[in-house]
């Protein structure tokens, strides 16, 4: 057991809140600060992408006894539902039977988590702006404005769970020997909305993650509990098919009629949603180190903000907590070692899920509409069903296993090389499930 | 001609000062701010690597009529002087006869440049701390401390020439869509000193850039006008041969006796220098965009801090000025276009010299002691002498030509692939200048 410490968590998002629950259960005094109002008191919509929870996230909730409670507010999603331009709708299962991810509304989940953290005894301080932190002695500096007067708040340990533009990291960035990178994507996103039917049911299959793949842009939709869907249009800011070019009502309506004809009946407020909701940016950030002595640690997006195309931002952040907790159980009161082992263990995995997420945009937005890619997936699934001990597809490794992301990425790259060779196999489209192909894959697996 | 503007340059380093001269000659009001005291009034030593000026830097000085004046304070360096561990000393000429770079002391050059800028009419404000800038209207915010009261200083245009940790860039970093990366090297450096002989002459050849290549660490030395040499020890912070391990006098003296035996007589104050001078960090930074509308632009290290191993930090910064000036001459008062064309033209070249500089550590610290590498260089030189229109070695492209860095890098990579093949040629160490090798190179050049 640990000696109780006075701990501040900066940021009341999903990771900060779940971390607060863990720290309370360990016996610490926990104060959570957020510059924004309490999300339970404000409307939350207009700039969110729905979340998906997969095994890594569930593992972290399970370890603290919250899995069942959260599952109640999620919707099982076991497949991609692909809407082609010609109106065809096809599905691709994500894993084996019974394997699924869960669609969760960010607002709903975050409110629930704050309730749970308060029940656990964490204290929340909303509308409190933390501008700076002293790394040497874990003090926070709070004030109305950045340039105004600040008050010092003393703690034993500070966690920066304050997201991609973390102020805690901002202080660390100004230390020597701190590596940091931020990169904005050329693709932005906008939230759209499919309302529920009058009887509260969903207008389209609620157990699919819907994708309208259109090459360098796509629409996607994830179900909410209330029968609605949160949709997200991902598209370049500039260029031929871009946000820049969808300037007026007519252009927008024509564009959707051309590229997403089957959304006409299900997105009734397209024009209003589109011009009211902001066009949001996507940013990737990387940094190292994540911790300072036994005083300060980054966790979640503040340490590794990724793009949403694998649905792993929250899962990776929750897995940070699992690793941190492992180190706490292992090293007791030695916070210096806890922090250094935590960052050492997580950094390569955070880099790997960042890379996987970046790559997955292309898979979602164009490959899912490519017959050759679909055949490749079919072969992988067929082989994996026959030889589960020899082949787990990359998506399953990342989403349904707890294998470290870095290992999943490395094995995925190896498997992909094999599949590239297999796709060159003569007459592969007919021979795809032949003994020769099976044997060839086994042979290639053995030349590691 | 341009309409006179009120322009602030933040930073009185080499690039800021030369930029001020250019802007004065164009008729603007120019104020240069620096948080440090006037370098002309303080001792400058202990943490500097000597500079080398090559053709790109000279071109920028020449265009404004300052080349001759600055050449007076430089020392021609036409070769590498390589000190092997066994005491052998060999040389490698950098280019053709008459081609050389110039060694310059940073302090001497910077003082001279400030004098010249003042003569040109630029006003300097030292000990003035600029904490922030308003991008929308080119105001600077100045104050004693970051958290204290600030004064607004209004300008038409602001240049951030304030180095790798630029405050001007710091403000841009907090804009959306600003890509930024900083990476600290695992190698640090420390300044050492070879004093002049009593009669003011140099103790070792002043026209060589001296290198003591020792694998993952090295010592180098560049001559000063006063007969002394500024030496720099580059070494990992941690590990077997590292700064961390050179903790006491005995370890240090033994280490130098083992690895740099021929420095014993020429670095008399080794122990004092070593423990007095700081161990400095090396950082690479990249960012984009470099400019904001027609109001603010980054230039030099603030836009692209690189490692010193190609000797091009200053040259690249001066070349920024050449490009900026080209755009000014082309677009007159249209500063928005000047800035956007300037950054568009320079960004790929800044990325290229960053990459070239990073790679050159290995070339300097280990390849210069590798017979295979020396043979490769000899073949390149032989072929280039015979076919100057077909082959200019990479070093010459970067240092003695004005070809854009990005082109030099691309062609260098192509040439390197050819040389890799040539080095596989049977019995290459004897056949290196044979007609077959000559023909093979020509053949490989043609399969582009």
Automatic annotation (TrEMBL), chains A, B:
Pathway(s) served: Cofactor biosynthesis; NAD(+) biosynthesis; quinolinate from L-kynurenine: step 1/3
The EC number(s) this enzyme carries: 1.14.13.9
Reaction it catalyzes: L-kynurenine + NADPH + O2 + H(+) = 3-hydroxy-L-kynurenine + NADP(+) + H2O
Keyword NADP attributed: yes
Gene Ontology annotations of biological process type: anthranilate metabolic process; kynurenine metabolic process; L-tryptophan catabolic process; NAD+ biosynthetic process; quinolinate biosynthetic process
Pfam hit, one: FAD_binding_3
InterPro entries: FAD-bd, FAD/NAD-bd_sf, Kynurenine_monooxygenase
Keywords, comma-separated and alphabetical: FAD, Flavoprotein, Monooxygenase, NADP, Oxidoreductase, Pyridine nucleotide biosynthesis
UniProt-listed HAMAP family: Kynurenine_monooxygenase
Function, in words: Catalyzes the hydroxylation of L-kynurenine (L-Kyn) to form 3-hydroxy-L-kynurenine (L-3OHKyn). Required for synthesis of quinolinic acid.
Entry protein name: Kynurenine 3-monooxygenase
Lineage: Bacteria, Pseudomonadati, Bacteroidota, Flavobacteriia, Flavobacteriales
């Amino acid at each position: 057991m640990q000696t109780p410490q006075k701990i501040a968590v900066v940021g009341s998002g999903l990771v900060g809140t779940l971390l607060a629950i863990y720290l309370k259960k360990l016996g610490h005094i926990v104060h959570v600060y957020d510059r924004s109002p309490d999300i339970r008191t404000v409307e939350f919509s207009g700039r969110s992408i729905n979340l998906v929870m997969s095994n890594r996230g569930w593992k972290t909730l399970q370890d603290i006894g919250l899995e069942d409670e959260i599952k109640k507010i999620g919707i099982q999603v076991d497949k991609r539902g692909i809407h082609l331009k010609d109106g065809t709708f096809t599905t691709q299962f994500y894993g084996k039977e019974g394997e699924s991810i869960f669609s969760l509304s960010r607002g709903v989940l975050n409110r629930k988590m704050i309730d749970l953290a308060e029940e656990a005894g964490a204290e929340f301080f909303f509308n409190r702006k933390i501008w700076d932190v002293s790394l040497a002695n874990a003090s926070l500096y709070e004030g109305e404005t950045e340039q105004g007067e600040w008050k010092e708040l003393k703690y034993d340990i500070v966690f920066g769970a304050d997201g991609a533009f973390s102020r805690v990291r901002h202080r660390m960035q100004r230390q020597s020997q701190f590596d940091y990178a931020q990169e904005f994507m050329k693709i932005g996103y906008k939230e759209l909305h499919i309302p529920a039917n009058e009887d509260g049911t969903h207008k389209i299959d609620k157990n699919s993650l819907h994708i309208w793949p259109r090459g360098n842009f796509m629409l996607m939709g994830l179900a909410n509990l209330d029968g609605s869907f949160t949709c997200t249009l991902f598209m370049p800011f500039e260029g031929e098919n871009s946000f820049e070019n969808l300037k007026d009502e007519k252009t927008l309506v024509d564009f959707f009629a051309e590229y997403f004809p089957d959304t006409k009946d299900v997105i009734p407020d397209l024009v209003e949603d589109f011009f009211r909701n902001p066009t949001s940016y996507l940013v990737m950030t990387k940094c190292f180190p994540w911790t300072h002595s036994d005083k300060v640690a980054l966790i979640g997006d503040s340490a590794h903000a990724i793009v949403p195309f694998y649905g792993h931002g929250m899962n990776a952040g929750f897995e940070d907590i699992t690793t941190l907790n492992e180190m706490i159980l292992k090293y007791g009161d030695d916070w210096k070692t806890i922090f250094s082992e935590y960052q050492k263990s997580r950094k390569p995995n955070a880099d790997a899920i960042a890379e996987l997420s970046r790559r997955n945009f292309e898979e979602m937005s164009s490959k899912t509409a490519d017959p050759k890619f679909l055949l490749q997936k079919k072969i992988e699934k067929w082989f994996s069903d026959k030889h589960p001990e020899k082949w787990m597809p990359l998506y399953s490794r990342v989403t349904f296993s707890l294998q470290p992301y870095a290992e999943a990425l490395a094995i995925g790259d190896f498997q992909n090389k094999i599949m590239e060779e297999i796709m060159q196999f003569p007459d592969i489209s007919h021979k795809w499930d032949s003994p020769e192909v099976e044997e060839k894959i086994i042979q290639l697996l053995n030349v590691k």
